[in-house]
Amino acid sequence: MTADQPLRLVIADDQASVREGLVLLLGGLPGIEVVGAAADGEQALELVAEHKPDAILLDLHMPVLDGIGATRRLVAEHPGVAIVVLTTYVDDTSVLEALRAGARSYLTKDADRTDIARALQAAVGGLTVFDPRVQATLLAAASPPAASPAPGARQPEPPDGLTQREAEILGLIAQGLTNGEIAERLFLSNHTVKTHINRIFAKTGSRDRVAAIGYAQRHNIG
After folding, report:
1. What is d(CA 129, CA 165) in angstroms, rounded to the nearest whole number?
2. pLDDT of residue 180
3. What is 159-218's CATH number?
4. What is the pLDDT of residues 5-51, one digit of tens each?
5. 0.70 cut: is pTM over it?
6. Domain boundaries, the chain
7. Per residue in 65-86, pLDDT tens?
8. Which of 79, 138, 172, 203 has its CA 20 to 30 A from that of 194?
């Protein structure tokens, strides 16, 4: 790909609505040409062999051949193709397996088309891009487990007036959990979780989740 040529892209996702939506969203951007769309990893490999794209946008959980298996084969058979994972899964096993298999970037499906396009261009240029939830997951996976407090030991008071519950929720945000996942983990309603998060943002001076994750890391929360 040269500066005056569009980035040629294959999209692979087993959900037709997601796949077709990505084709429309990304194919309408200047500088990107979608040359094929696949419903599973085997189809993706066939399209890559046929069209020789610059990059592939790949879901992890697909039938026939999943994203991890497809990534390994793409690296072996088409090493010049930049692999960007776009998925709903941000658990450390999925992230680490994808990166070890050879994925260059890892985004979640709540990324907007500008973020996806930027990640694709960066991956083709040899750079790596993660969204904040994935960064938090990688940091959590790389950090040594915290020592368990001794029986009967009192928990230290959280900083800046945070309650123990707010600190707990902030720690889960730092691990990359969504509001819904936090609600399920703590047996709370989504509304209650949102109320806690608004208070956390106010007490920590955080404008968004990225800032809150940074605060949690600085204060060893989570």
Report:
1. 32
2. 87
3. 1.10.10.10
4. 999 999 999 999 999 999 999 999 999 999 999 999 999 999 999 99
5. no
6. 7-134, 159-218
7. 999 999 999 999 999 999 999 9
8. 138
